[in-house]
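Limitations

Structures in this collection are predictions, not experimental determinations, and the ligand pose is part of the prediction. Treat each record accordingly. The example that follows, with zinc ion as the small molecule, is included so readers can see exactly what is and is not provided: the inputs are given verbatim, and the output is the predicted complex.
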Amino acid sequence: MTPNLGHGCATTVAVMLEVTVSTSKPSTVRADALVLGVRSDDDGAEVSEALAAVGFTGKEGETAVFPAGDFGKVRTVVAVGLPAEPTAEQLRRAAAVGLRKASAAKASSVAMALHPAGVEEVGAIAEGAGLGAYRFDRYKTSDDDSRTNIESVQVLTPFGRQTTATAAAERAVVVARAVNAARDWVNTAPGDLRPPAFADAIAGLGTKGVDVSVWDEKRLAKEGCGGLLGVAAGSEVPPRLVRMTYSPAGATQHLALVGKGITFDSGGLSIKTGPGMQTMKMDMAGAAAVVAATTAIAELGLPVAVTAWACLAENMPSGSATRPGDVLTLRGGRTVEVHNTDAEGRLVLGDGLALAAESDADHVVDVATLTGACLVALGERTTGVLGNDDDLRERVLGAAELAGEPMWPLPIPEEIGKAVTSSTIADVRQHNPKPYGGTLYAAAFLREFVGEKAWAHLDIAGPAWNDGGVRDYTPTGGTGAAVRTLVRLAEDLAGA
Ligand code: BES
Ligand code: ZN
Ligand code: ZN
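Predicted complex:
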């Protein structure tokens, strides 16, 4: 397939299914497949004989797929093991696992009877289904996937006639679509999503209530955004700064979001190893997350103002690239002594955070695949949360817990804060003189640009990308990390 390098071609529409709620019983619902939650102590289940015959014990995550036979009006039953009182996260996972099994069994419509679902549970099941249905086939020229596309999911609940249940399913669809859009962008080949193309894709979203403005390289120069320009200096394509604003009537809180959008991180002149740059198309996952979250927040009509800045640049080596030793002047006039051109994320975020600091936002949150050190500290699946404000950090961690995204706090120790301002020739040093605490140093650097604002920094270097096989609702490749947490945070700030 010829790579498509034109502008405005970068958005692929994530697969999205129709989700409804229904008061139907598992035994009477019409669908190709029924996904049935079964507890280990559930002898009374109507399909228990069939389950026993295939050795199904009902352990969490266990599945059994069999023809429905005389049972109900469906063709296939997918039993999924669940504990007696499943958490929202267990329901999300079970829904995704069940949906994929149904898809492998050639279903296109699915009914989910995972739990006697209340309104909270309806949301979790719908979200798990929407996330689990994701697939990325933009570059496949033939359909070598034996799974079917699931077109519709009915979530069975005794509360199916209540508007709150329908609203929970609708919210879940909006959120899942946003996460899947972020995944699509991360998975897109980096040659197809260079900064101008990514900016065009964001500008082309057309979300109601969201204004988008794009700064090109001329405007960036005029506005003093030397971080973005410095990082992009080695690339044949210019950087872009995209601002999205959503300002609903009656909002009392204003959340600023800033995302790292390095569409490819080769390391620049401080070039990475071959294996080290293998996955570096994902280095724009922070920008994808803030854009997708802003879209979802607007689509949900949450009464909180949001301004998002996506800081887009390509980090490449060339004769025009920024050198170690160069000094850049970032937005607001602070000078930075560059030591390692592979620590580029903090340079583009410095511009974005300075702009957020100038705005009237009450809270600033940045999201970035910032440091390999965060993988060393917290492993591949946990986001590091740092910042300058205990209340905001706690809110982010609370939102992450509700969303089912593992996040953990990390400190910005005093001595690391001091090291950032220890450059002998500029205002700040870009890079830690010591090989320890790389994530903490990067955050201390960012703190220099946020002024007095309450700020939290999410280092998603690990969770943004899944190197392994699909697990539960997390696909291989781009995961859409942090989107769900940002939406929960906005809901929290909106008092929803
Ligand atoms: N994009 C990388 C961080 C990264 C590494 C994300 C692995 C995901 C997986 C970032 O720009 C980078 O290269 N950071 C350097 C910083 C160092 C030069 C101070 C790193 O982590 O090694
Ligand atoms: Zn880098
Ligand atoms: Zn990077």
